[in-house]
Fold this protein.
Amino acid sequence: MSITMSAPRRAPLFGKLRSALGGIAGVAAVTLALGVAAPARADTTLLNVSYDVARELFKDINPLFIADWKQKTGETITINQSHGGSSKQARSVADGLEASVVTMNQANDIDMLAKRGLVAADWNKKFPNNAAPFYSTMVYLVRKGNPKGIKDWEDLAKPDVKVVIPNPKTAGNGRYTYLAAWGSVLQKGGNEAQARELVGKIFKNVPVLDSGGRAATTTFTQREIGDVLVTFENEVQLVKKEMGQNFDIVYPASSILAESPVAVVDKVVDRKGIRKQATVYLQYLYTEPAQEVIAQHFFRPRSEAVLKKHSASFKPVKLFTVDDVFGGWDAAQKKHFDDGGEFDKIYQKK
């Protein structure tokens, strides 16, 4: 986990990854008020606890919200960011990290906080689209020219293919990757045993099980480990944009819908008296300016107008949901990712 500042300007991804590797983390804040430097003391401070692949997105959205709120209310808001593996972040909040809001990459992490009484039981009804202002899916980043000829999930199970995937126990995109591979078999008419066999072979090919998605990207792009990285579409698009001479993107025949849900952490905001600011901050993610930034970062926006404008960035892909294939996140968690579940059984055999 790291806590960083919002910033209106985005540095190249390669440099950010290298910085993250250096282990330098600090707590800072960025404020913006109509183009004029804000006072050192903010009227309100929010902490957005999020997953690691979204750090650049919120660095660009936060200054827009800060300026918008300042113009409308005269109040200066500081937004601090905390990033890491999604499930690891959720556990940090459960253990006492005082998040004002959580912006995760899977509903399961927020459900856990709801069970602890930290967020509302009906949190996914507090905002539109199941409280997910954007979504993504799982695709492949391969070495330039795709030398291993990787096209679909079955290719990740070949004995000579090394696959970089973060740990499904700590990272949301590791969990989505696992479920996408498992579900791809069922979508083609296969059975559970065949799905288990495919996923087992894939994870047997994983040389490094990083704790989060950004660490996995670093392993693949900078440490040059592996033949293919499986991660969110937005992450591979950013790598391709900034280091495209070294990589290609491959879309599988089918993949999983990966919604990015958000929630207000009730106990924290009520104690600090900042519920209104935290709620409006999450509502802002659905506005056209924020949706535009979301699309520019290669997340799929909910706004049909913005999605149409950026349609060239989002290749059509057959998506299935956790609800449709696995009976929802609770069922998927219990069967596949709880201690002693399918993932533990599969990985212990590696």
Observations:
- The radius of gyration is 20 Å.
- The chain has a mean pLDDT of 89.
- The first helix runs from residue 13 to 21.
- The first strand starts at residue 2 and ends at 5.
